[in-house]
Write a structure and sequence with these properties.
seven-stranded mixed sheet, alpha/beta
Length: 263
């Protein structure tokens, strides 16, 4: 009886410790943007759509390396415009482009036959023309080279989760012992609208990690605790990506806004 009581308390404590870990959709607060230098010129900024330089794909389980997901371009651009407009770095901030995202593989960015101009250059020219019409001085453009959702590891709670599952089964399913990650590689460009000159460019890498329990990532079988992530089906992977959608957008906006306001 005493052993059972101790085991039950252990299970309750582990579930409580797991619950103290951030929910998979937890959004990390942005670091405050530093004030601009007193002598800095405040220019009008246009924010272009996210340019996808890769082809998103649906998950095809088993996915040992995860899958290439599509970012929420609308949320990224909306948050980026809001964050930069609320800073003191720019005279004005406005979005340009018909849609919040564009694919560089879209046929409309193909030049005439024999034309060796790349889709990226054609898309950039179109956005610069729109930015000029909007009266912008600079264009901020993000090109997403790759975005992926993947299983990362069984974290430090796994051994305790396994013990709890072995003794009681059910409580082990509630412990967040699996870590999944959303990884984004992007290039940021700050371009002078009048001349098309790239003033600054840099590589941005975003890594968002969150801990999941069996119910967070999709529960289908009593032995899933031993089989993840191989047991996950397409719906599970899509669900994990949805959990990570907003945190990833916020992380990308935080990194991009810090970069473009950096002296």
């Amino acid at each position: 009886m005493r052993a059972a009581a101790v085991a039950a308390l252990l299970a309750a404590g582990l579930i409580g410790a797991s619950g103290c870990r951030a929910s998979p959709d937890h959004i990390t607060d942005w670091e405050p943007l530093p004030p601009p230098p007193a002598s800095a010129e405040r220019v009008a900024l246009a924010v272009g759509p996210l340019a996808l330089g890769y082809r998103p794909a649906s998950p095809e389980p088993p996915c040992p390396n995860g899958f290439r997901n599509e970012l929420d371009a609308a949320l990224v651009r909306e948050l980026l415009v809001q964050r930069l407009a609320g800073s003191e770095h720019f005279a004005s901030v406005a979005a340009v482009g018909e849609a919040p995202g564009l694919s560089l593989s879209d046929p409309r960015w193909r030049g005439d036959e024999g034309d060796d101009v790349s889709p990226e250059i054609l898309a950039r020219r179109a956005l610069l023309a729109e930015a000029a019409e909007a009266g912008a001085d600079h264009l901020l453009w993000l090109r997403i080279n790759n975005a992926r959702v993947t299983f990362e590891e069984r974290n430090d709670l796994f051994i305790w989760s396994f013990i709890t599952w072995y003794l009681f089964i059910f409580p082990g399913w509630m412990i967040r012992d699996e870590t999944y990650a959303a990884i984004v590689n992007a290039d940021a460009f700050l371009i002078e609208v009048a001349t098309g000159t790239v003033l600054r460019t840099d590589r941005l890498k975003i890594e968002v990690r969150r801990d999941f329990n069996d119910f967070d990532r999709g529960f289908w079988h009593i032995l899933d605790i031993l089989r993840a992530p191989d047991c996950l089906d397409e719906e599970d992977w899509v669900g994990i990506a949805e959990w990570l959608r907003k945190p990833t957008a916020h992380a990308l906006v935080g990194e991009a806004s810090a970069w473009v306001t950096r002296p």
